[in-house]
Design goal:
The chain is of the alpha+beta class. It has three domains: 119 residues, Rossmann fold; 30 residues, no CATH class; 120 residues, Elongation Factor Tu (Ef-tu), domain 3, CATH 2.40.30. The chain is built from ten helices and twelve strands. The strands form four sheets. Strands 7-8-11-10-9-12 form a six-stranded antiparallel barrel. It has a two-stranded parallel ribbon with strand order 1-2. The longest helix has 20 residues. The chain is elongated. The two termini are 37 Å apart.
């Protein structure tokens, strides 16, 4: 991003990031596509914070998928963006049947008058930064590594919706945070924090399919904020994950679930007091 801004400044043109919705793997294999680390809305906010002037979001449709590599360069890069400089991973493939690659772009740039530069892999302390590595860190509960790779704590943002109100019966009222995801990158019970009106509230969260409670089988994020009292319905929360307490599990009864939740809250209080 820094080099993109630098090149844009040198050329006197806006900086622009091109993204796809849905992502190609979600288009071809939605059931097996990797879980997203950020939703589109959050990605746009992060890119804006990096000083990007524009974001071009291309709809990945069947018609778009059938564009040849040459058509992609002409229609998107030249006709659409009037590109002067392009930053792209050296393993990037595009066009129908993934026929286009870095060499193809370099040749097109030499012919059409735009420069092409490889966005080199970023390595931190000997670890390659990639979404796959972040997912692996989250899956293993290594939130320190995930934060190191991301440059920030791993977060999930969403609007608080009305749920089953079951948390009140379990002496642990929760905010039901909308996920809007086909797959989530982590499941279980976690120590979390979220900022509300300038104050950070520690808490405990469950993310998963809630096996003890009859549901729709989709993933839910439920957050209990310690000592918080107030109406959060309709508000958008950003939940930061810090530590995994346990896996999600099915309990024999609601009473057993209530006991486990009380233990989770006690563990959260002990952690945040240290």
């Amino acid at each position: 991003m820094a080099r993109l801004r630098e090149r844009a400044g040198e050329l006197g043109v806006p900086s622009c990031v091109v993204i796809f919705e849905p992502q190609p793997r979600e288009f071809f294999s939605p059931q097996t596509a990797p879980a997203r680390l950020t939703r589109l809305r959050d990605k746009l906010a992060l890119l804006s914070a990096e000083g990007v002037d524009r974001v071009l979001c291309l709809a990945f449709t069947r018609r778009f998928r059938e564009l040849s590599a040459a058509e992609f360069v002409q229609k998107v890069l030249i006709d659409g963006l009037a590109v002067r400089h392009l930053e792209v991973g050296d393993d990037f493939r595009f066009g129908c049947d993934r026929a286009g690659d870095f060499a193809f772009l370099s040749q097109a740039g030499a012919r059409e008058g735009f420069s092409v530069e490889a966005a080199k892999t970023v390595v931190l302390d000997g670890v390659r930064v990639s979404s796959t590595r972040v997912r692996e860190a989250l899956a293993s509960g290594d939130f320190a590594l995930a934060e190191h790779l991301l440059g920030r704590p791993f977060q999930i943002a969403g609007r608080v919706l009305h749920g089953q109100k079951l948390g009140r019966q379990l002496d642990a009222p929760t905010a039901n945070v909308q996920l809007k995801r086909c797959h989530v990158p982590l499941t279980g019970v976690y120590l979390v924090s979220t900022e509300i009106d300038g104050r950070v509230w520690p808490g405990v969260a469950n993310i998963g399919v809630r096996p003890t409670v009859a549901g729709d089988g989709s993933a839910h994020l439920e957050v209990h904020l310690l000592d918080f009292a107030g109406d959060l319905y309709g508000r958008r929360l950003t939940v930061a994950f810090h530590h995994k307490l346990r896996d999600e599990q099915r309990f024999a009864s609601l009473e057993a679930l209530k006991t486990a939740i009380a233990a989770d809250i006690a563990a959260a209080r002990a952690h945040w007091r240290t």
